[in-house]
Structure formats: structure tokens, C-alpha cells
Design brief:
By secondary structure, the chain is α/β, with parallel strands linked by helices. It is about 35% helix and about 20% strand. The chain is built from 12 helices and 16 strands. An 8-stranded mixed β-sheet has the order 1-2-5-3-6-15-7-14. A 4-stranded antiparallel β-sheet has the order 10-12-8-13, with helices on one face. A hairpin with a 5-residue loop joins β1 and β2. It is elongated, with a radius of gyration of 23 Å.
Amino acid sequence: MAKLGDNLRINGDRLWDALMEMAQVGPGVAGGNNRQTVTDADSEGRHLFKRWCDEAGLTMGVDKMGTMFARREGTDPDALPVYVGSHLDTQPTGGKYDGVLGVLGGLELVRTLNDLGIKTKHPIVVTNWTNEEGTRFAPAMLASGVFAGVHELDWAYDRVDAKGLKFGDELKRIGWLGDEEVGARKMKAFFELHIEQGPILEAEGKDIGVVTHGQGLRWIECTVTGKESHTGSTPMPMRRNAGRGLAQVTELVHEIAMKHQPNAVGAIGHVDVYPNSRNIIPGKVVFTIDFRSHIIDTLNAMVAELEEKAPKLCEALGVEFSSQIVGQFDPPAFDPDCVAAVRNAAERLGYSHRDIVSGAGHDACWINRVAPTAMVMCPCVDGLSHNEAEEITKAWATAGADVLLHAVLETAEIVG
């Protein structure tokens, strides 16, 4: 393989312009984006990405989960491709960079190789995974989960949103239901560039996070059932207030996570109160607990403690507690050779870096099950993400894409 020089860099201005143009698709109300999966806005963003890929000379494949694969040929037709990418879908009040940086950073990588006439032995494929966020259709990382064999295709198609619409039907409606079998592709490696979504890199002044592990995750959907009654005429001792159960479990979740510091987090992020009227005592509350840790024993211990204590807390209040796990994956350890390629790239380019554990779930966490995988992270302002105020700098985006370029080229092998 030809030697990689530290002067080989992406076009940071072009990458930033692409990020800003994609941000015009599915705009939010406060400067971010609402481009939820398999919506019309998602379809519009996909068409823009496809146009850019076509202009870069890439060939596009789409699988039955709607995941887009844009391929740049290598010199060896039999060599396994190196994949890069992330996702274009966003939270309802999402930022302009979460996921999008990884997809458009991969596209910029290809554009740079085209500009410089660089050929690689292995093909390079830029990927847009469908429904990474999981906010409209749970669970998160749905398409990559089907690709990795974690979920069945028909099961994924049957996921429903809050309006009762099915994922499979919506994917077909927007015109991005492909015909390629999910998981049929074989990879030499997969690299995902992403913003940190946490405060560590910015706080320590580091340009690059070399992701060694991902956190495992358990999403636990809980239901507290009491009895609806009038807030004014029901005596306090006779109330079966489901809202009190929510309050007790909220504090319990915090206590459990704090008990397992520094390697665990936990919170309740989604709550539905029924009937949600100001003068009716809640008869039912449905909410989701998010527990995470990169240590599997810690993760399992947190779930076990919740399942032991929450029913007793609610019983003492005269309400009932039930729960089920609706999303989960065990903590992944990323491939040592791919991680080394990321670290080597940061050092070659002179960027400050540190090893880091991803605090969020990513498509790379599932793909790690079927191919050697690693992640590159760049800082984000105040660690803020899943928020329209999410922000990064052009320099951070450029550094992350530079490292991605070098890690991919080290793996895909420059010819000549």
C-alpha cells in the first residue's frame, strides 16, 4: 500500500456546505431538524444524498429496510468493501449533525479521493442506515439491527408509530423500499464518524475520540396502573394515583444509576399520562427507562434491581407496576485493528485524541457483530445533542472527517 502522508486532507469547506444544505431539509422550529425516519422529509433528504452520490460517480443500492449503499469501485473486484456511514434521520427536535456528519463525512471522503485521483484496492461504500434514532418507530438502530440478524425483517415492518402507522407501510409509501436482501452484503470493515453527544472531548480540549467500546442499553417500558378519579372530590387516603408511582420509580432509577458510578447512567425520557386532564387523578402512566453501561454485569444488575424494587414501591401506594424490555443491546467492544487505524490516523495528522466509550447507541454497535468495526468522534458544544441547539465547529467536523479518511484508506489500501 502507498504511504499515507499527513498532507492528505478532506475539503472542510465542502463538507460544511453539504451539512448546511442537508439541514435545509426537514427544518426544525429552533434552528435544528425534524427529519424523522420514513417521513416525506426523510425521503427528500435521501433524494438529495442520492443526487450527490450520483454526481460523485457512485452506484446506489437500497435494501428491503431502505438502507442506502453508495459504492465507489476498487481495483480488485473480488476484494471486500470498506463501509463508512451513519444515518440521516433525526429526532423530532434534532440537531444538524447527529448522524448526518457520518454520512456526509463519508461522501466527502469519496469526493476527496475523486479530486486527487486516488484509487483503492477495496471498494468504499457510503451508507445511510434507516431509522437509527428509533424515536418514531422503536427500537433504535432498526435497519442495522435487521442487517446484523438481531431483528427479523417482518417484525421490523410491523413496528408502529404513535398514530398506528406501520414502518413497512411508511417505507413503501415514501418510495424507499429496496429489493436487496438485508444483511446479504459482506464487509471488510465498517467505520462510523459521529459527534460525541457528550461533554468529554470539548472539556478536555481533544480533537478526536477514538471509540474503543459502546455502551450497552436497556429500554424498559413501564406501566403504572391506578384508578382515575376526580382531583377535587376524591379523599387523599382513597386515591390510587398512578402519577405517584411514576414519581417513586423516577427517583429509584436515579438512585440505581448513581449506585453504579462512574460506569452507568439511567433516566426516564418518555412519559404518557392517562387521561392527561388537569382535574383527573392519573389512572395510568406509561414511561420508558433508559439504562446504559459499557459493563454487562452492571447493566444487568441495574435492570434486576429495578424489577425487584419498583413493584414493591408501587404496591405500597396502592397502584400496580409492570414492565417489559422494548430495546436492548449488550456493550460492544470494537475491533482492535480498526480502532488502531483510527488512532494511527489521529496521530499521523497531529490531532489531539483520547480513547473514549460511546455513551449513545449507534449503528456501529450492531454492525460490530458481523464485521470489524470502529468509530471516530469529534466534540460537540457543551456535549449537547438530541436538541435543536446541537452545535459543532467546522474545524471539529474537518478533523473528524480527516481521521475517517486516513483510517478508511489504511484499511482499503491505496493502489500506486
